[in-house]
Each structure stands twice: as C-alpha cells, then as structure tokens.
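Hello again, I could really use a second opinion on something today. For a while now I've been wondering how a particular protein folds. Please have a think about how the structure follows from the sequence. Here's the protein in full, and shout if anything looks odd to you:

***
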Amino acid sequence: MRSVRRCSRAGCANPAVATLTYAYADSTAVVGPLATYVEPHSYDLCERHALRLTVPKGWEVVRHEGEFALPEPSADDLTALAEAVREAGRSDRQVESSDWWASSSRRGHLRALPDPHDE
C-alpha cells in the first residue's frame, strides 16, 4: 500500500503533492503532479513549496497548471492491502523460523520463557 510521501524540503512535514525535476541541460526546473514512484533525481514538494519555488537567474520554471491534490488510493493499493490482510489471516500459513518468540500453537502471540535464574 502506498504510504503518504512528505515534502523533501528540510523541516517541512506536509504531504507531497508535486514532484520537482531539474533539466540541467536546459536550465529548467519542472514542477508537475506527484510522480507515481519516488525517483532518485527528483524531489517531492508540498503545495506551498511547489507554488513558491524560485530558481537561479537565467533558469526557467515550468509549472503544472491547475491545482495540486493529494493522490487518491488506487485500486492497486486497495488490492495490495486486501492481499496482505488475507495472507496474514491464513490459518495454514507457517510461522517463519525467525519468529522464535511466537508461540507455535497460537501464531502471533508471545509465549513466556522460563527465567534461567529460577532453576
């Protein structure tokens, strides 16, 4: 499921609604709708920072026309969530060996271990 992405600007915790990408060869900053996936050379921005972005002298800003909006959950997100819930609830699912703390009879519950000092 998609988690809420936050603005890349330092100190800003607002949700991202736009993606900033630089075209260095063209001296252009492009601010568009929030990209579907996080890209290594782009920056997620909240609405405030997307609208107030300034660039160095000689650079151009190409900005999305219209309003920025938080992305709606897609059918893929909802399907992934439903699959994860179904998988977690399966009675035939085996507990992985890394879950050494889980009870073998009641999956997902803790069990008490004897204190070695009590013996």
